[in-house]
Amino acid sequence: MHSPMEQFEIKRLLHLNFGGFDASFTNSSLWMVITVVLATGVFVMGMRQRALVPGRLQSVAELGYEFIAGMVRDNVGDQGKKYFPFIFTLFIFILFCNVLGMVPYSFTPTSHIVVTFAMALVVFIGVTVIGFARHGLHFFSFFVPKGVPAVLVPLLVLIEVISYFIRPVSLSVRLFANMLAGHTMLKVFGGFVVAMGLIGGWAPLAFIVALTGLELLIAFLQAYVFAILTCLYLNDAIHLHH
Which secondary structure element, helix H or strand E, spans residue 39, and what is its range? Predict the structure, then answer.
């Protein structure tokens, strides 16, 4: 039986090297490209006709648009509209990566911490830049809770600063860990089915079916959590809410 971790192995498909920097095109890169092409195709083709009575593809595109638009409106407010394209792109990219990773013999880019951390770092840096651009040095007031006794301010500021800088770590690890754990479990129980055969493998097979449904739900939930936390961080930067 193959190792359940083998599915996460990065394989070079095209060796590229620029001045000693390894920029090889890998299976992870390939599936990210497939994700972008497929997601773009769904929304471009879905909205091409702009029918008054939408078809299935247009309904999916409109549902996705309205879902994220509502999320941004509810959690950031009207000032968050300009950031809608970024949050929408982030959500759709993560969702398609997660769902496509359920296809047999595919690859899940979001099961690698380097991918999820890169996205989380972009969110963290972007939100911080927005905060300073809008408020200047007053942005530091975000780290000082209101109504706190002066004697506790140094301790609480330290805690707030640590919790702020831990955001990209928690954001990335949450997505990476869920994808890694779920796919590993599917592989392990798939191995049980093969090892036990048709007669004895019905129990793990039934579990795989149930787990696959759960994994699809988690694929959506993790994309949703990543997007809504991005909205909340953005709301903090814009309104300095604590």
Answer: helix 27-47
172-197 pLDDT tens trace:
999 999 999 888 887 777 776 666 66
Helix 113-135 and helix 84-100: axis angle, to 10°? 170
Could you give the dihedral angle defined by the CA atoms of residues 233, 224, 96 and 9, in that order, rounded to the nearest 10 degrees? 70
Q: What are phi and psi of 59, to 5 degrees?
A: -65, -40
pLDDT at 131: 94
pLDDT tens, position by position, 66-88: 999 999 999 998 888 999 999 99
- The rounded distance, in Å, linking the Cα atoms of 62 and 2 is 42
Structure tokens at 120: 């989380």
Residues 229 and 232: their CA atoms lie apart, in Å, by 5
Is the whole model's pTM more than 0.70, yes or no? yes
Least reliable range by pLDDT among 45-54, 106-115, 220-229 = 45-54
User: What are the domain boundaries of the chain?
Assistant: 6-239
Beta-carbon count within 10 A of 111 CB:
24
Bridge partners, residue 14, by sequence: 25
Phi, psi of 44 (to 5 degrees): -70, -50
> CA-CA distance, 44 to 71, in Å (whole number)?
22
Q: How many CB atoms lie within 10 A of CB 155?
A: 10
